[in-house]
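Mods, move this if it's the wrong board.
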Amino acid sequence: MAWSFLSRRGTNAAATRRITSPMLRLIGQATSINVRKVLWTCAEIGIPVAREDRGEEAALRALNPNGLVPVIEDEEGVLWESNTICRYLAAKHGRADLLPVAPRARAQVERWMDWQATDLNASWRGAFMGLVRRHPDHADAGRIAASARAWNELTKILDGQLARTGAYVAGDTFTLADIVIGLSVNRWMMTPIERPDLPAVAAYVARLMARPGFRAHGANGVA
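Not the wrong board. C-alpha cells:
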C-alpha cells in the first residue's frame, strides 16, 4: 500500500486529544538514539506505541534491507529512516506545529533535521564510538580528539542559531528539528569530552526539560 502524507487536520485539535488509531509497531532497542527520535515524536503527538527489540537479523532485513533500526509498521505498511518516520508521523496526524505545511517554514525545520543526520552525525562518530561505546575500531586517541573538536565546532553553530532565535532550533516554537537536535545535544553533554561553554545551548536544554517526551527519551541517562 502507498504511504499517505496528505493529512492536514487542525493543529490545535490534534495537539489536545489522544490519537485513537491502531497502535504503532516500532522495531528497535530503546537505547538507540534514532529509535528515541521516534519515541519522543510519538510522545509529543500522543501515539500509542508497541515497541520491540530488533530481533533476528534476517527478520529485520526483511523489513529494512539495510538491517538498521528504527522500523515502523502501521495500517499503511512499513517505513524506515528515523527522520523520515518522524516527518511521516507528524504529517499523518496533522501536526503542522511540529512540521509546518508552508514550504518555507517546513524547509527551515527540515534543514536542521538534515544537518543533524549528516554533518553533526559525522562529527561525533569517532569520539562517541571510542569513548562511550568503546568500539575497537575507534580507539585511536588522535581520531577521537579530532572528532571531539569537530563536534564542538558544529555545536557552536547550533549555539549561534539558538542565540538568534532565543527559543528553538527553527524559530519561536518547538518542532521536529528540536527532537532530533535535542537528542544530539544530550549525547554531546553526556560524552566525556572537553566542551566549550555554550550558554544558548544550556538555556535550550533547560527549555527542553519542561517537555515530558524529552525527559523520558532524551535526558534519561542514555547517550
